[in-house]
């Protein structure tokens, strides 16, 4: 790496840091206001609101990454342009393309960092924030008390009324159907302990067997039941789609589709992670003509224009995702379309500039 390349890379990193220092506290403050709205409910206190907001910081940074890339590059290159450093570089024979490659390379490193952060840090902290907040508010962290968690395989429907902790559940219902789709066995248990793998021990059990016109009911203190879910599957079912890691999402989508269940919400969450990477690339490309294509425009004006673009992209992405899910469109198409279109538009703009 040449001296000029190193200098440009450092300036871009500084620009990204400045953009992060602007955007992350702003959106975290909005998160905190949302958390403070629930203070006083249950045992939820002000310190819990601050803790939940802090735990959500990595997830918020990942969501803001495309706009951090856009504003960070505009700040970095804009500062160089205002100081006439870009003019000096070009007079020294450094082409605009070479100058542009450095911010894009740093942005790609940012993408890799976000992927690692999402897989190993952000999801775990977000899940901790959700469970801690739900416990303080005395709510179920899954679907709300009385609704429970519903899932199935080819022959069984399972309802878990409430997860008491990672190894114990309450209010369990199991419905087993025959090959013709008729209810064969109904099991209700007050509690279920997850013993090992997919083996459960049910307590205070009522079993009803349907044979022709007869219904036989048997009550037992406890019984072993081999579930079609393992503890990891149960853990995934209790988490919102956006809080899962990419690997967890992929595995859960495969599980839902294999058992004939609705998987669009989880598939969309998975594809939106890829869509976010495309949007970040698009924002990196857009940041270049903001500087080279606006030589007479001041840095403040460039930042305002870049901010307006970022807000428009964010709103467009949210509208397309929600509308697509409502209309049951292909999740991959919904998630990838905005990023691909933005990359195309940025490429066309770059061709006009260079």
Structure description:
With 354 residues, this protein is α+β, with helices and mostly antiparallel strands. 62% of the residues lie in helices and 18% in strands. The protein has a six-stranded antiparallel β-sheet with strand order 1-2-3-4-5-6, with no helix packed on it. Mean pLDDT is 89; it is low at 140-145. InterPro entries: LptG, LptG/LptF_permease. It is found in: Cell membrane. Keywords: Cell membrane, Membrane, Transmembrane, Transmembrane helix.
Brief digest:
The chain is α+β, with helices and mostly antiparallel strands and 354 residues long.
Uncertain regions spanning at least 5 consecutive residues: 140-145
Radius of gyration: 26 Å
- Beta fraction: 15-25%
Order of helices and strands: HHHHHEEEEEEHHHHH
Spatial separation of the terminal alpha carbons = 23 Å
| Count of separate DSSP helical elements | 10
Q: Tell me, what's the shape? A: elongated
Q: Averaging pLDDT over every residue, what do you get?
A: 89
- Please describe the biggest sheet, giving its number of strands, its sense, and whether it closes into a barrel: 6 strands, antiparallel
Estimate percent helicity.
55-70%
Q: Looking across the biggest beta sheet, what order are the strands in?
A: 1-2-3-4-5-6
How many strand segments?
6
Structural class: alpha+beta
Could you say how many structural domains there are in total? 2
Ordered list of secondary-structure elements with their pairings:
Elements: H1 3-36, H2 46-55, H3 57-82, H4 85-91, H5 96-137, E1 149-152, E2 156-165, E3 168-177, E4 183-196, E5 199-211, E6 214-226, H6 231-237, H7 246-258, H8 264-292, H9 299-326, H10 331-353
Antiparallel strand pairs: 1-2, 2-3, 3-4, 4-5, 5-6
Helix pairs in contact: 1-2, 1-3, 1-5, 2-5, 3-5, 3-8, 3-9, 5-8, 7-8, 8-9, 8-10, 9-10
Membrane topology: Multi-pass membrane protein
Subcellular location: Cell membrane
Protein name: Lipopolysaccharide export system permease protein
